[in-house]
Amino acid sequence: MSPVSFPSRDPSSGLAALRDGITSGDLAERIDFAPGVALIADPPLGIGGTWHSPAGRLLELDIAMTGAGDWIALHLALDLPDLSGIAFVGLGCTGAGPEQQIIRPCLRSGLDEGGFVDCFLDRHILVQTDPVPHVDALHVPTCRTLPETAPWRELLLFLPTEPLRWHLHDLRILAA
Fold first, then answer.
1. Secondary structure element (H or E) that encloses residue 19, with its range
2. What Rg, from alpha-carbon coordinates, does the chain have?
3. Residues 130, 161: contact at Cβ < 8 Å?
4. Do 89 and 57 form a contact (C-beta atoms < 8 A)?
5. Residues with Cβ < 8 Å from 112, sequence gap 6 or more?
6. Residue 88's closest CA among 121, 118, 116?
7. Which of these, 64, 53, 69, 63, lies nearest to 18 by C-alpha position?
8. What is the rounded CA–CA span in Å between residue 156 and residue 4?
9. b/e 12-33 (16+ beta carbons within 10 angstroms → b)
10. How far apart are alpha carbons 53 and 72 in whole angstroms?
11. Is residue 104 within 8 Å of residue 124, measured between CB atoms?
């Protein structure tokens, strides 16, 4: 499987475009919100709903499903082909929603021979009614399945495969 194709692999430009602009639209199986930022769902889920990106926030998602499927994820393309010399890779984010939900962050790395490997971060993002900061990172030297070099990488936020309302206020990529 190949990476999600984006016009830009610079996560900061896509996140900045969402943070600074005011846009909205309807949801479908795949939505490209900005360069390097997309929502992609398993087709049998039959997702619908709406999304908004108000000024000063990233995304407000109101997702409905008409079917049953296995996955739905927010994809963020990363420009991190070489992790040598990097001790930690992770994320910091804040968000809220009307119901408690769990979101699973994952670092996906492409493999030279094709396909990919997923490395899930230890802590799930807990969506609550009040904005809650979440910070988590992978310790690169001890992640045995994480390749040091990769042709491409993405941060994925696996969303629940049930109706979801989530306001993602901020998202930052951490690499140190």
1. helix 11-20
2. 15
3. no
4. no
5. 150, 151
6. 121
7. 53
8. 11
9. eebbebbbeeeeeeebebebbb
10. 19
11. yes
Tokens for 140, please give them. Answer: 């690169």
Look up residue 42 and give its amino acid. D
Measured in degrees and rounded to the nearest 5, phi and psi for residue 20 equal: -95, -20
Both structure tokens of 115 = 């396909």
Taking the whole predicted model, whether its pTM rises above 0.85 is answered as yes
Which amino acid is located at 2 in the chain? S
pLDDT digits (tens, 9 = 90+) for 31-77: 999 989 999 999 999 999 999 999 888 999 999 999 999 999 999 99
User: Which tokens is 154 given?
Assistant: 């993405």
Spatial CA neighbour of 132 closest among 158, 104, 97: 97
Q: Tokens 């709406």 label which residue?
A: 50
Task: Please give the structure tokens belonging to residue 38.
Answer: 């997309």
| Structure tokens that stand for 33 in this block | 């919100």
Chain length of the chain: 176
Position of tokens 């996560």? 11
Residue 13 has phi, psi (to 5 degrees) of -70, -40
